[in-house]
Specification:
Layout (H helix, E strand, L loop, with lengths): L15 H14 L4 H17 L5 H28 L5 H25 L2
Helix pairs in contact: 1-2, 1-3, 2-4, 3-4
Protein name: KfrA N-terminal DNA-binding domain-containing protein
Length: 115
């Protein structure tokens, strides 16, 4: 039977920006509309702002990190659309939907960072 040490381990600190971006990517991946994605972002930010353990400066930092990552994602999506085979209409439509959802996420994240 293994002995238990007297050391209590703290749970690993979560990475809220990464978790938020993962949630946003999941909604986009499921075909979420720009409006649905914006609501998800608002829900994430509302949760951060309501979390008593989070300093508001920390929340602002998370918002900036997410906004930066979303901006990079938008640029990558635009490049991918530009490089895609224009004869594949389904892929072009999917790319346009994903780009619109990313742009909505970026706008929602940017709008909430001003409040």
């Amino acid at each position: 039977m293994p002995r238990k040490s007297g050391v209590v381990r703290k749970p690993a600190r979560s990475n809220p920006p990464r978790e938020a971006l993962t949630r946003i990517a999941e909604v986009i991946g499921r075909g979420g509309t720009p409006e649905r994605v914006a609501r998800e972002v608002q829900s994430i930010v509302t949760g951060w702002r309501a979390d008593a353990e989070m300093d508001q400066g920390e929340v602002d930092e998370y918002l900036a990190q997410c906004s930066e990552s979303l901006a990079e994602g938008i640029e990558a999506a635009r490049t991918q659309i530009d490089d895609a085979d224009s004869s594949d209409k389904a892929a072009a439509a999917q790319g346009a939907r994903s780009l619109a959802a990313l742009e909505a996420a970026y706008r929602a994240m940017s709008d909430t960072s001003r409040h």
